[in-house]
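Researcher: Please generate the 3D structure of the following complex. Treat every line as part of one assembly.
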Amino acid sequence: MQAEMERCGYIAEPAIATAVYLAKEMQKPLLVEGEAGVGKTEIAKVLARMLATDLVRLQCYEGLDTNTALYEWNYQRQLLRLKIAEREPRDPGELEDLIFGREYLLERPLLRAITRREGPAVLLIDEIDRADEGFEAFLLEVLSDFQITIPELGTIRAEHVPFVVLTSNRSREIGDALRRRCLYLFVEHPGFEKELRILQSKVPGVNEQLARRITRFVQRLRARELRKLPGVAETLDWAQALVRLHRDALDAETVSATLGCLLKDEHDIKATGEEAVTELLAYAFEKE
Amino acid sequence: MSGAHGIVAQLARFAGALRSCGVRVGLGDEIDAASSLTLVDLLDRAEVHRALRIALKVPRGAWETFDKLFAEYWDGHRAPEHPALREARKSDRRPPAQWRWDGERVRLALRDEQQDTEGELPGYSPEAVLRRKPFDQFSESELAAMERLLARLALKLATRRSRRLVPTIARGIIDLRRSFRRALGSDGEFLKLARRARPLDEASLVVLYDTSGSMEAYTRVLLSFAFALRRVMKRVEIFAFNTTLVRVTRMIAPAGIPQSLQRLSAGVPDWSGGTRIGGCLAEFVSLHKQTLIDRNTTVVFVSDGLDHGDTALLECSMRELRARAGKIIWLNPLLGDSRYRPEAAGMRAALPFVDHFGPAHNLKALEGLLRFVP
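Model: Done. Output below.
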């Protein structure tokens, strides 16, 4: 599993590979928690790539309701169809079937995920902690039965049960009921080796020595007291920036100029002044 | 398949040990874990470790306990009372065995070893003195002023609009789904469009009210606070705590003050006795967190924080509350004294989790609360 994920461009720790494997075999949703930028969302994307299937993404936000999560009728189109029908006499029953047909139904992510014909889709329910508790309860129902009832059409059952990945930034605690229905994975910031490999595979332009230094620098930076620790995404951004600037070596000036790629908090940037940068650089250059 | 059976039994014992160390593991999780074990290589220790942690849904905070117990149970050297286990038991902050049912209510069983050397601080009396407090009647004008104040507070607390859209008869965005349904009744003509708008989130309030001896001087004004709250807010729950936690919402009927007072002094044990904030709060969290606390809830503590119970327990419960509640307000009557510094151990443990820390010795101090609430 690990090797397969790697082939699809995701350097997975054994824990992540095991979780994905178990979720797939046991047909259970996988709840992924962890700090921002550790690659939670990426897990679903890689899973979709691995299974060569569609990724259906439902981005959660406060106030998300069934109209945007499940389905909605295309009212404008229905109205137009009715206007046209006024000119051509037609059997009313036939017309009704027509305008309440599937073409007039706007499928939202949850419905789309369970109606995919070609095989199971990967359903990514992103940042579930942002949706309100009521939506969480509604999800429970969908995730346990995988069927959706539309009054005009009847009950639609899942043709293939999708692989479900839920992610959460822990801005709010997820209810126990939902947690119990899922397998649980907590993703941490990657270790040196893993981060180095991610860096090398995602930013090909970076040379071996620079990659090592960048990784060591970031690893050391994470050990500091910061409000917002830089994630892997930040490391990649930073490496990209350095490559664009054609910098082959790290020096204090470059680091200070590009620190905004790593630290996204005013307080953190101030706290990482010249002295801190020098110390971090010394560490990054140490073991060579 | 006696081998497989042995593993299941081992798993059940393991899950039991996790539970006894305070990690919440349900039967459903055990079933998940058992089926996950059929999918992995049982000879690979690391693989089994990962699979169990994933399938038992062990939260990040409990990984250490999990690792310790895993080493005990799955590496084959299980000692009857391993020091690690004892350690874990010690750090378990919510021991359910502490409660007992005395026929009327759940009580916190007192732990005797904590009752020494702590008597010298003013205001703290570890012995639960069974006393009934005679209540004065409140003056009418005092109560009225309090009510006006709290009505304003209640309004202010309920100014947050939900992001959800609900049907409304007033202005709002057009709800096509309902408009179409409605048009069915009038032959497809849209006589009136249905609309949706963002409703006001009803604020709810949970008041945890310290009735210990050190708070005695302030009970009068603070009790009227509770009465007034009951009158002006629909969703308010009031708890009294000293050495036990009692839900007093029902005892405080807005209509009859004298009767309420009588019910209160009869229903709250150890009135004006000692305090165990940590224990009572832990009980509150485990019994009522799910049902009473959500993001629209403001939790109000009325206490001086003089508590020599388990501050670790207090801190842990405060953290859990913090993760769930909208706002936490701590009203401390002692703050009225300018020389007061929040240095009591209990107060210090709770402060990092509190949004607003304010005085509550008289009506004027409570007015400050209005300014704080946005």
